[in-house]
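quick one, four chains, predict together pls
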Amino acid sequence: MQVTRAGEYAIIGLLYLAKQPADRTIMIDEISEAEGVPKSFLAKIFQSLAKGGFVCSHRGAGGGFGLAKPTGEITVLQVLQCVEGAFALQRCVTDDPECVVSTTRMSNCTLCAVFTEAQNRVNEVFARTTIADLLHPKPQVAQPIKSAASLN
Amino acid sequence: MQVTRAGEYAIIGLLYLAKQPADRTIMIDEISEAEGVPKSFLAKIFQSLAKGGFVCSHRGAGGGFGLAKPTGEITVLQVLQCVEGAFALQRCVTDDPECVVSTTRMSNCTLCAVFTEAQNRVNEVFARTTIADLLHPKPQVAQPIKSAASLN
DNA sequence: ATAAACAAGACAATCTTACTCCTATTTGAT
DNA sequence: ATCAAATAGGAGTAAGATTGTCTTGTTTAT
Protein backbone atom coordinates (compact mmCIF):
# COMPACT_ATOMS: atom_id res chain seq x y z
CA MET A 1 0.00 0.00 0.00
CA GLN A 2 0.97 3.58 -0.36
CA VAL A 3 -0.94 6.70 0.42
CA THR A 4 -0.33 8.77 -2.67
CA ARG A 5 -0.98 12.43 -3.36
CA ALA A 6 -4.38 11.48 -4.75
CA GLY A 7 -5.49 10.07 -1.42
CA GLU A 8 -3.97 12.92 0.52
CA TYR A 9 -5.63 15.55 -1.70
CA ALA A 10 -8.96 13.75 -1.52
CA ILE A 11 -9.02 13.97 2.26
CA ILE A 12 -7.79 17.54 2.24
CA GLY A 13 -10.55 18.41 -0.21
CA LEU A 14 -13.22 16.73 1.87
CA LEU A 15 -11.96 18.48 4.97
CA TYR A 16 -12.23 21.80 3.19
CA LEU A 17 -15.82 21.07 2.20
CA ALA A 18 -16.59 20.03 5.75
CA LYS A 19 -15.44 23.38 7.08
CA GLN A 20 -17.81 25.33 4.85
CA PRO A 21 -21.49 26.06 5.49
CA ALA A 22 -23.39 22.92 4.52
CA ASP A 23 -25.52 24.61 1.87
CA ARG A 24 -22.63 26.19 -0.02
CA THR A 25 -21.65 24.79 -3.40
CA ILE A 26 -17.90 24.98 -3.71
CA MET A 27 -15.86 25.05 -6.87
CA ILE A 28 -12.68 23.10 -7.51
CA ASP A 29 -10.92 26.42 -8.11
CA GLU A 30 -11.65 27.58 -4.59
CA ILE A 31 -10.49 24.38 -2.92
CA SER A 32 -7.42 24.26 -5.11
CA GLU A 33 -6.38 27.78 -4.24
CA ALA A 34 -7.27 27.58 -0.59
CA GLU A 35 -5.40 24.32 -0.01
CA GLY A 36 -2.57 24.75 -2.48
CA VAL A 37 -3.44 21.64 -4.45
CA PRO A 38 -3.10 21.41 -8.27
CA LYS A 39 -6.45 22.26 -9.81
CA SER A 40 -6.68 19.77 -12.68
CA PHE A 41 -5.52 16.95 -10.48
CA LEU A 42 -8.01 17.83 -7.78
CA ALA A 43 -10.76 17.93 -10.39
CA LYS A 44 -9.89 14.38 -11.41
CA ILE A 45 -9.90 13.25 -7.82
CA PHE A 46 -13.27 14.84 -7.17
CA GLN A 47 -14.69 12.92 -10.12
CA SER A 48 -13.85 9.76 -8.21
CA LEU A 49 -15.26 11.14 -4.98
CA ALA A 50 -18.50 11.99 -6.78
CA LYS A 51 -18.74 8.50 -8.26
CA GLY A 52 -18.05 7.06 -4.84
CA GLY A 53 -20.92 9.01 -3.36
CA PHE A 54 -18.84 11.12 -1.01
CA VAL A 55 -19.64 14.42 -2.67
CA CYS A 56 -22.41 15.53 -4.95
CA SER A 57 -21.50 17.60 -7.95
CA HIS A 58 -23.42 20.36 -9.69
CA ARG A 59 -22.44 21.21 -13.22
CA GLY A 60 -22.88 24.43 -15.09
CA ALA A 61 -22.66 28.01 -13.97
CA GLY A 62 -22.86 28.33 -10.21
CA GLY A 63 -22.01 24.68 -9.89
CA GLY A 64 -19.47 22.96 -7.70
CA PHE A 65 -19.31 20.34 -5.01
CA GLY A 66 -20.83 19.63 -1.63
CA LEU A 67 -20.54 16.81 0.86
CA ALA A 68 -23.01 14.00 0.17
CA LYS A 69 -22.83 12.49 3.66
CA PRO A 70 -22.30 13.56 7.26
CA THR A 71 -18.59 13.81 8.03
CA GLY A 72 -18.96 11.16 10.70
CA GLU A 73 -20.00 8.62 8.10
CA ILE A 74 -17.01 9.05 5.81
CA THR A 75 -13.99 7.02 6.87
CA VAL A 76 -10.43 7.58 5.73
CA LEU A 77 -10.32 3.99 4.51
CA GLN A 78 -13.35 4.48 2.27
CA VAL A 79 -11.89 7.63 0.77
CA LEU A 80 -8.48 6.10 0.13
CA GLN A 81 -9.98 3.00 -1.44
CA CYS A 82 -12.20 5.19 -3.58
CA VAL A 83 -9.45 7.32 -5.08
CA GLU A 84 -6.53 4.90 -5.06
CA GLY A 85 -8.31 1.64 -5.76
CA ALA A 86 -7.75 -1.28 -3.42
CA PHE A 87 -4.43 -0.45 -1.89
CA ALA A 88 -2.23 -3.19 -0.56
CA LEU A 89 0.95 -3.32 1.43
CA GLN A 90 2.13 -6.18 -0.73
CA ARG A 91 0.94 -8.34 -3.60
CA CYS A 92 0.13 -11.22 -1.27
CA VAL A 93 -2.50 -9.13 0.41
CA THR A 94 -4.59 -8.78 -2.68
CA ASP A 95 -5.98 -11.70 -4.62
CA ASP A 96 -3.30 -11.22 -7.25
CA PRO A 97 -2.67 -14.69 -8.70
CA GLU A 98 0.73 -13.42 -9.84
CA CYS A 99 2.01 -13.09 -6.28
CA VAL A 100 5.44 -14.67 -6.32
CA VAL A 101 5.45 -15.51 -2.66
CA SER A 102 2.17 -17.33 -2.55
CA THR A 103 2.22 -19.07 -5.91
CA THR A 104 5.78 -20.25 -6.27
CA ARG A 105 6.41 -20.98 -2.63
CA MET A 106 3.71 -22.11 -0.28
CA SER A 107 0.00 -22.01 -0.52
CA ASN A 108 -0.20 -21.39 3.20
CA CYS A 109 2.50 -18.74 3.24
CA THR A 110 3.51 -17.36 6.61
CA LEU A 111 5.09 -14.33 5.00
CA CYS A 112 1.85 -13.48 3.23
CA ALA A 113 0.10 -13.90 6.55
CA VAL A 114 2.37 -11.30 8.15
CA PHE A 115 1.79 -8.84 5.32
CA THR A 116 -1.92 -9.41 5.58
CA GLU A 117 -1.90 -8.89 9.32
CA ALA A 118 0.00 -5.63 8.92
CA GLN A 119 -2.43 -4.54 6.24
CA ASN A 120 -5.33 -5.27 8.56
CA ARG A 121 -3.80 -3.11 11.27
CA VAL A 122 -3.58 -0.22 8.84
CA ASN A 123 -7.12 -0.78 7.67
CA GLU A 124 -8.36 -0.79 11.26
CA VAL A 125 -6.83 2.61 11.92
CA PHE A 126 -8.18 4.08 8.70
CA ALA A 127 -11.58 2.44 9.09
CA ARG A 128 -12.22 3.90 12.54
CA THR A 129 -11.11 7.40 11.57
CA THR A 130 -13.74 9.60 9.98
CA ILE A 131 -13.56 13.03 8.40
CA ALA A 132 -15.31 14.28 11.53
CA ASP A 133 -12.48 12.89 13.66
CA LEU A 134 -9.96 14.82 11.61
CA LEU A 135 -11.97 18.01 12.04
CA HIS A 136 -12.41 17.69 15.78
CA PRO A 137 -9.29 15.94 16.95
CA LYS A 138 -9.68 13.85 20.06
CA PRO A 139 -6.68 13.33 22.35
CA GLN A 140 -6.46 9.58 21.75
CA VAL A 141 -6.11 10.10 18.04
CA ALA A 142 -3.45 12.77 18.14
CA GLN A 143 -1.57 11.67 21.22
CA PRO A 144 -0.06 8.21 21.33
CA ILE A 145 2.48 8.33 18.52
CA LYS A 146 5.29 6.05 19.41
CA SER A 147 8.26 6.89 17.24
CA ALA A 148 8.65 4.43 14.40
CA ALA A 149 12.41 4.57 14.95
CA SER A 150 12.01 3.29 18.49
CA LEU A 151 10.66 0.03 17.15
CA ASN A 152 13.95 -0.96 15.55
CA MET B 1 5.30 2.44 2.51
CA GLN B 2 5.38 -0.38 0.09
CA VAL B 3 6.93 -3.76 0.46
CA THR B 4 8.73 -4.11 -2.85
CA ARG B 5 10.24 -7.12 -4.54
CA ALA B 6 13.56 -6.26 -2.92
CA GLY B 7 12.13 -6.68 0.56
CA GLU B 8 10.23 -9.77 -0.41
CA TYR B 9 13.30 -11.39 -1.98
CA ALA B 10 15.45 -10.48 1.00
CA ILE B 11 13.19 -12.34 3.39
CA ILE B 12 12.84 -15.27 1.02
CA GLY B 13 16.62 -15.43 0.75
CA LEU B 14 17.11 -15.33 4.50
CA LEU B 15 14.50 -18.02 4.96
CA TYR B 16 16.37 -20.21 2.49
CA LEU B 17 19.61 -19.73 4.39
CA ALA B 18 17.83 -20.52 7.63
CA LYS B 19 16.66 -23.86 6.29
CA GLN B 20 20.19 -25.00 5.45
CA PRO B 21 22.71 -26.57 7.84
CA ALA B 22 24.28 -23.70 9.79
CA ASP B 23 27.83 -24.40 8.64
CA ARG B 24 27.04 -24.42 4.91
CA THR B 25 28.15 -21.55 2.75
CA ILE B 26 25.48 -20.94 0.15
CA MET B 27 25.90 -19.26 -3.21
CA ILE B 28 23.56 -16.72 -4.73
CA ASP B 29 23.13 -19.08 -7.69
CA GLU B 30 21.68 -21.75 -5.47
CA ILE B 31 19.22 -19.47 -3.70
CA SER B 32 18.22 -17.87 -6.96
CA GLU B 33 17.46 -21.19 -8.62
CA ALA B 34 15.82 -22.76 -5.60
CA GLU B 35 13.52 -19.84 -4.94
CA GLY B 36 12.93 -18.62 -8.48
CA VAL B 37 14.33 -15.16 -7.84
CA PRO B 38 16.40 -13.24 -10.42
CA LYS B 39 20.07 -13.90 -9.72
CA SER B 40 21.64 -10.48 -10.32
CA PHE B 41 18.92 -8.75 -8.38
CA LEU B 42 19.27 -11.13 -5.49
CA ALA B 43 23.03 -10.54 -5.50
CA LYS B 44 22.43 -6.81 -5.12
CA ILE B 45 20.01 -7.41 -2.30
CA PHE B 46 22.44 -9.67 -0.49
CA GLN B 47 25.04 -6.94 -0.67
CA SER B 48 22.71 -4.85 1.44
CA LEU B 49 22.00 -7.72 3.80
CA ALA B 50 25.75 -8.23 4.26
CA LYS B 51 26.30 -4.54 4.99
CA GLY B 52 23.40 -4.66 7.41
CA GLY B 53 25.02 -7.53 9.30
CA PHE B 54 22.27 -10.05 8.61
CA VAL B 55 24.46 -12.36 6.57
CA CYS B 56 28.19 -12.84 6.32
CA SER B 57 29.69 -13.19 2.88
CA HIS B 58 32.72 -15.19 1.79
CA ARG B 59 34.35 -14.24 -1.47
CA GLY B 60 36.38 -16.35 -3.79
CA ALA B 61 36.06 -19.97 -4.82
CA GLY B 62 33.87 -21.91 -2.45
CA GLY B 63 32.43 -18.67 -1.16
CA GLY B 64 28.86 -17.69 -0.57
CA PHE B 65 26.63 -16.50 2.23
CA GLY B 66 25.58 -17.63 5.66
CA LEU B 67 23.35 -16.18 8.36
CA ALA B 68 25.22 -13.83 10.66
CA LYS B 69 22.68 -14.03 13.50
CA PRO B 70 20.22 -16.47 15.01
CA THR B 71 16.95 -16.39 13.11
CA GLY B 72 15.12 -15.31 16.24
CA GLU B 73 17.13 -12.11 16.33
CA ILE B 74 16.31 -10.96 12.81
CA THR B 75 13.02 -9.12 12.55
CA VAL B 76 11.09 -8.52 9.36
CA LEU B 77 11.16 -4.80 10.12
CA GLN B 78 14.95 -4.75 10.29
CA VAL B 79 15.28 -6.60 7.02
CA LEU B 80 12.81 -4.39 5.18
CA GLN B 81 14.43 -1.24 6.49
CA CYS B 82 17.81 -2.60 5.48
CA VAL B 83 16.98 -3.31 1.86
CA GLU B 84 14.31 -0.70 1.17
CA GLY B 85 15.56 2.15 3.27
CA ALA B 86 13.20 3.79 5.75
CA PHE B 87 9.81 2.96 4.34
CA ALA B 88 6.86 5.14 5.08
CA LEU B 89 3.15 4.91 4.49
CA GLN B 90 3.09 8.59 3.68
CA ARG B 91 5.39 11.56 3.51
CA CYS B 92 4.11 12.91 6.82
CA VAL B 93 5.45 9.89 8.59
CA THR B 94 9.04 10.62 7.69
CA ASP B 95 10.82 13.79 8.64
CA ASP B 96 10.45 15.05 5.09
CA PRO B 97 10.20 18.85 5.37
CA GLU B 98 8.52 18.83 1.95
CA CYS B 99 5.39 17.12 3.27
CA VAL B 100 2.51 19.12 1.85
CA VAL B 101 0.11 18.16 4.57
CA SER B 102 2.24 19.18 7.49
CA THR B 103 3.97 22.24 6.12
CA THR B 104 1.25 24.05 4.21
CA ARG B 105 -1.61 23.18 6.48
CA MET B 106 -1.14 22.62 10.17
CA SER B 107 1.89 22.00 12.24
CA ASN B 108 -0.16 19.77 14.49
CA CYS B 109 -1.79 17.91 11.65
CA THR B 110 -4.42 15.35 12.57
CA LEU B 111 -4.14 13.67 9.21
CA CYS B 112 -0.40 13.19 9.67
CA ALA B 113 -1.17 11.75 13.09
CA VAL B 114 -3.46 9.14 11.57
CA PHE B 115 -0.85 8.17 8.99
CA THR B 116 1.76 7.92 11.69
CA GLU B 117 -0.48 5.78 13.86
CA ALA B 118 -1.13 3.42 10.95
CA GLN B 119 2.58 3.27 10.23
CA ASN B 120 3.26 2.38 13.85
CA ARG B 121 0.78 -0.49 13.68
CA VAL B 122 2.59 -1.87 10.67
CA ASN B 123 5.93 -1.46 12.34
CA GLU B 124 4.68 -3.26 15.44
CA VAL B 125 3.67 -6.29 13.38
CA PHE B 126 6.94 -6.36 11.48
CA ALA B 127 9.05 -5.69 14.56
CA ARG B 128 7.65 -8.59 16.53
CA THR B 129 7.96 -11.06 13.64
CA THR B 130 11.32 -12.74 13.25
CA ILE B 131 12.73 -15.03 10.59
CA ALA B 132 12.35 -17.81 13.15
CA ASP B 133 8.63 -17.06 13.40
CA LEU B 134 8.28 -17.42 9.66
CA LEU B 135 10.08 -20.76 9.75
CA HIS B 136 8.08 -22.21 12.61
CA PRO B 137 4.66 -20.63 12.26
CA LYS B 138 2.71 -20.28 15.45
CA PRO B 139 -1.09 -20.25 15.36
CA GLN B 140 -1.38 -16.66 16.49
CA VAL B 141 0.69 -15.45 13.61
CA ALA B 142 -1.04 -17.37 10.87
CA GLN B 143 -4.55 -17.43 12.25
CA PRO B 144 -6.33 -14.17 12.97
CA ILE B 145 -6.61 -12.63 9.53
CA LYS B 146 -9.73 -10.59 9.42
CA SER B 147 -10.53 -9.91 5.79
CA ALA B 148 -9.55 -6.41 4.78
CA ALA B 149 -12.75 -6.19 2.76
CA SER B 150 -14.84 -6.72 5.87
CA LEU B 151 -13.54 -3.47 7.28
CA ASN B 152 -15.27 -1.36 4.66
C1' DA C 1 48.04 -18.91 -12.01
C1' DT C 2 43.43 -19.81 -12.46
C1' DA C 3 38.78 -20.20 -11.76
C1' DA C 4 35.12 -19.35 -8.61
C1' DA C 5 32.52 -16.36 -6.19
C1' DC C 6 31.06 -11.81 -4.22
C1' DA C 7 31.42 -6.22 -4.62
C1' DA C 8 30.34 -2.15 -6.82
C1' DG C 9 28.57 0.80 -9.98
C1' DA C 10 26.61 2.00 -14.44
C1' DC C 11 22.89 1.25 -17.28
C1' DA C 12 18.13 0.14 -19.05
C1' DA C 13 13.20 -1.27 -19.48
C1' DT C 14 8.95 -0.91 -17.44
C1' DC C 15 5.62 0.89 -14.28
C1' DT C 16 3.66 4.23 -11.26
C1' DT C 17 2.85 8.76 -9.86
C1' DA C 18 1.38 13.13 -10.50
C1' DC C 19 0.10 15.68 -13.01
C1' DT C 20 -1.89 18.67 -17.69
C1' DC C 21 -4.83 19.40 -21.62
C1' DC C 22 -8.56 19.05 -24.70
C1' DT C 23 -13.09 18.17 -25.82
C1' DA C 24 -17.57 17.28 -24.31
C1' DT C 25 -21.74 18.12 -21.53
C1' DT C 26 -24.61 20.41 -18.27
C1' DT C 27 -26.67 24.50 -16.37
C1' DG C 28 -27.88 29.29 -15.07
C1' DA C 29 -28.36 33.84 -16.69
C1' DT C 30 -29.24 37.16 -20.32
C1' DA D 1 -31.41 30.85 -28.19
C1' DT D 2 -27.02 31.97 -26.69
C1' DC D 3 -23.23 32.44 -23.88
C1' DA D 4 -20.29 31.67 -20.19
C1' DA D 5 -19.37 28.93 -16.18
C1' DA D 6 -18.61 24.78 -14.30
C1' DT D 7 -17.92 19.62 -14.04
C1' DA D 8 -17.07 14.89 -16.87
C1' DG D 9 -14.19 12.10 -19.27
C1' DG D 10 -10.37 10.59 -21.67
C1' DA D 11 -5.83 11.07 -23.63
C1' DG D 12 -1.33 12.31 -23.01
C1' DT D 13 3.14 13.18 -20.52
C1' DA D 14 7.33 14.04 -17.61
C1' DA D 15 9.71 12.51 -13.72
C1' DG D 16 10.84 9.16 -10.64
C1' DA D 17 10.75 4.48 -8.65
C1' DT D 18 11.02 -0.31 -9.40
C1' DT D 19 13.18 -4.22 -11.15
C1' DG D 20 16.15 -5.71 -13.01
C1' DT D 21 21.00 -6.60 -16.23
C1' DC D 22 25.87 -6.04 -17.35
C1' DT D 23 30.58 -5.13 -16.83
C1' DT D 24 34.52 -4.59 -14.30
C1' DG D 25 36.70 -5.24 -10.32
C1' DT D 26 38.47 -7.88 -6.00
C1' DT D 27 39.05 -11.76 -3.02
C1' DT D 28 40.21 -16.54 -2.19
C1' DA D 29 40.75 -21.71 -2.55
C1' DT D 30 43.08 -24.89 -5.21
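Residues 140-152 of chain B have pLDDT under 50 and may be disordered.
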